[in-house]
C-alpha cells in the first residue's frame, strides 16, 4: 500500500505510477491530463512545434529511393506504370503526382533531387508543420506535371497514332516548388531570399541549356510552390486553421481546371 499522495488530486500513488513534479510527485493520470491541457507551442508561421525530425521529408525521400530501386529492378516496367506524359495524364490522372517519385537510371538525378529536398524540407517542414508541408509538396509535384502539360504544344498525328510527349520523371518540379516556397516564407520572416533567387536562376538556366531536363516542370512547380507557401505564410493567425483546409482544395481545383482547359483546347476533352 502506498502512502505517497499525488500533489494535484490527492490520491495515493504507487511507486510505478509516481512522476516527479516541481513539488512532490504526481500520478500518471494528472500528468497526462496536464499535458493534454497545455497550450500547443507554434512556430512563427503556425506550425506545431515537434521534436525537429522532418518526418514528411524523410518519408518522401524513402519513397523516392524505394521507387528508384524498383525502376532498376524491373527494367522500366515500374516506370511505365507511374511516369507522366501529356497524352497519358487524361486517362490515368494519378500520373500527374506519381511521376515525382520516379527518376532516371542515373544516380546523379536522384542524388541531386534528394539532397535538394532534404535541404529545403528541413527548413520548411518545421516552420509550416507536417500537414501544410505535405500539402505544399503534393501540389508542387502536380503543378510540375501541369506545367509540362500546358507548355508541351499539341498532339502530333504519326503513323502509329497520336503522340503527345515528352514523358517526364523526377522530383524536380516538387523541389523547385520548395525553393519557390522559401521566397515568401523568408520574406515573411524578414530574411533575405537573395541566395535562393541566385540558386533558382542558375538551376532554371541549366534546364534550358542541358538536353533532357524539363524546364516546364520546373516552372510549373516553382509557381505552384510559391503561391501555396505565400497563402500559408501570410494567412492571418485567426484564419490559419481555415487556410490549412482551403489551400489544398483551392490549389487542387485550380490545377484540375488548368489541365482540363488544355485538354479541351486540343480537342481531347
TrEMBL record:
Residues 92-232 form the Peptidase S54 rhomboid domain. GO terms for molecular function: serine-type endopeptidase activity. One of its GO terms (cellular component) is membrane. Keywords: Hydrolase, Membrane, Protease, Transmembrane, Transmembrane helix. It holds the Pfam family Rhomboid. It is found in: Membrane. Its main location: membrane. The chain crosses the membrane at residues 55-74, 94-119, 131-151, 163-184, 196-213, 219-235, 242-261. This is Rhomboid family intramembrane serine protease.
